[in-house]
Write a structure and sequence with these properties.
47% strand; Double-stranded beta-helix; single chain; four-stranded antiparallel β-sheet; mainly beta; 12% helix
Length: 225
């Protein structure tokens, strides 16, 4: 497929041009519009297959239980998708490799890619962020989203990133989660809390806004029903 990113960086959408004979998989609810002859199949895993356990695992990572599979007619077609939160989008070409994606950032991918959940261990539980991240592996294009602007950091030894600002990273990177300051008091009072310390060589994609922090600030302003 070909992907055209539109209205970047604040309110991005992705126009996916799908040739005849190909299928694109997208997060449930991501579709804005599509060609009239595109067929949709909704499953809990790959097209034509079920997979309740994989669906439940995706739910734990913050994604939908269901995936939509878009297949165009004989002349091909297009599907336009977007994320729930306003921000930027990116396209990454996997070449027989694996990408680790933070929950909520997955939008769509080519059908042959495998999307599964990965348990990050109790070190992620302590960070206050999701303890389950998605692992996307294989060869093909994947469309990701961010809350706010998205940018990449090249890691050649060590890089520290706030856990709430991570969109995705190469599986070649190792990471540990630790407090941001020299002491727990400094970390809490400074508002940073936990950070992710990446080691090795690879790329980390970051988002300029933290959805969890945004929700905490917005919550008290909302009127009760």
């Amino acid at each position: 497929m070909e992907v055209e990113l539109m209205h970047q960086p604040g309110n991005s959408a992705a126009r996916m041009i799908i040739p005849a004979g190909e299928t694109v998989t997208a997060e449930a609810g991501a579709m804005i519009s599509m060609s009239s002859d595109v067929q949709i199949e909704t499953t809990t895993h790959k097209r034509g297959k079920g997979g309740v356990m994989k669906a439940l695992r995706r739910m734990l990572s913050g994604e939908s239980m269901f995936l939509n599979h878009f297949t165009p007619g004989a002349n091909g077609g297009e599907v336009i998708v977007a994320a729930t939160l306003a921000g930027d989008m990116m396209v990454y070409d996997l070449d027989d490799e694996e990408l680790v994606v933070q929950s909520g950032s997955f939008v769509a991918c080519e059908e042959q890619l495998d999307v599964d959940m990965n348990w990050q261990g109790f070190k992620s539980l302590l960070s206050g962020e999701s303890v389950f991240w998605l692992r996307i592996r294989g060869t093909g294009k994947v469309v990701l989203s961010s809350f706010g602007a998205i940018y990449q950091l090249s890691v050649d030894s060590e890089q520290i990133v706030d856990t709430g600002h991570i969109v995705a990273f190469n599986e070649t990177l190792d990471f540990t989660i630790s407090k941001a300051g020299k002491s727990w008091l400094q970390s809490i009072l400074g508002g940073e809390g936990f950070v992710c310390r990446f080691n090795g060589r690879g790329t980390v994609w970051c988002q300029s806004h933290n959805a969890s922090s945004f929700g905490r600030n917005l919550g008290p302003m909302l009127k009760p029903r």
